[in-house]
User: Fold Cytochrome P450 from Gigaspora rosea.
Amino acid sequence: MYYYLIATFAFVGYIFYKCYIHPLYLSPLRKIPGPSSDNFIFGHHASFLNFSRGEAFASLTKKYGRMFRYHSIFNQPHVVITDPTLAQQILITRTYDYPNFFLSRNLTKDFIGEGVTFTEGDDHKRQRKALGPSFSLANVKEMLPTFFQASHKMKDIWLKQIGNKKEERITITDLVPKIILDVIGLVGFNYEFNATSPGSEIAQAYHSIVNIMPPAIYVFLADFLPVIRKILPSFYKDQYLESVQRIHNISDMLVSNLKNANIRGNDIMSILVKTNENLRASEQLTYDEMYSQVIGILIAGHETTSVALSWTLYYLAKCPEVQDRLRKEILDVFTDNNYFPTFEEIDSLEYLECVLKETLRKAPPLPDVMRSTSKDEIMNGYIIPKGTPLLISFYAIHHDPLIWGNDAENFNPSRWLDPEIKSNISTSAFLPFSAGRRGCPGSKMALIELKMIVPIIIRNFNFRMVEGFTFETRSQGFFKPVPGIDLLVSKVDY
Ligand code: HEM
Assistant:
């Protein structure tokens, strides 16, 4: 009887020590400046981490400097980095000294498998080597017709929605993700997702996954108590877990089909399968690794590009003079509505490039990435013990007035034409695609996709803000408008 009592006291004491005494009174990380914990159980997940953490980190940078601390679940201290020099060290100079950090390795692995996002060191290098040819510029150029058709499909759906009306209020964030999902289906796997059709299985599954994530406390506990994964409330079980399973089934089918195919196309996965066959046995990806790339590419390549496109249209609606200037530039190349431009032509649109860069600066689709320390370190004079989670906030770096000037909060594409600003911006101050060995392999593809879609849409439509319409911004994972963006859309005829 006493043993049970002692064991219970010891357990409770240990939990109290780990969740309260150590993080708040003993950890060397408590010396780093930062806000005090808001909630005994949820830490800052009870406050700013639940909403737009990018904006919160930008304002905390002003208060505490470019390295500060916040508290995660059970008060665990995490360190936020908004200093480009430290970001350079973590992301670029010593990439593999700072492994990726996940709130739950188990749940993440269940979801994305052992693909490129999950691996470290030599395994990560091996996977990136195999993926390289799929993302080469030559291959991305082959994707132009798919981008072209997707933008015309988007245009046709909106034209139908406007009909004979002068102007129509459209929730642009309804169609944009579906169009981008279709694109990734075709260029990624040569597969028709038909996401714009009402019964599209993949579109529904995908929507559930990105919109019904289990709360942070579940994710955190899932690593310590595997039983948590079995007692997820039925809401998550039915919608989230079933959707994950559906996407896994599709991934399995795609990779099996490709392995057995006699003729393969130029899509990302086909090229990966071909590249893999030509690698030395020790470098080849296993079936599981290959299969994990499907879900990785789907998530990494879809939500990011779709969010970037939605923000671009939003900022163009917000800044009519920018929209007019961009349309003028576009009309010089897209002389005819059905004109199919060359790669060189879309790449030469200088102001379009500025608009896209400015959108990715103001609203980086992935507002931050997480890493951890693999050994004890000193950073900016503070002791950072091994295993400390580090959050590199791209959003805060992109909004830092010391880098971007006093108009950092303004949407001003012309800043990218200013030679002085251009020369001040290092690779670690503009990080929409992160940087270093883990930097986004799809950056060229995403930019070219946007450079094809935006002109076709802007050539055909004028976008205006809806008076009084507001939305929230969420940045759990992706920096997204919630519930979405409504704009007034009218046809433009040239
Ligand atoms: C505007 C669009 C995009 C943005 C803003 C973006 C941004 C990013 C960022 C910030 C990372 C994290 C890198 C890190 O952990 O340091 C990443 C990783 C990744 N992205 Fe993208 N991405 C975009 C489009 C794409 C596309 C179109 C694809 C593929 C079709 C893609 C595939 C990947 C993959 C596979 C990774 C994991 C790389 C690794 O861990 O080594 N991304 N992306």
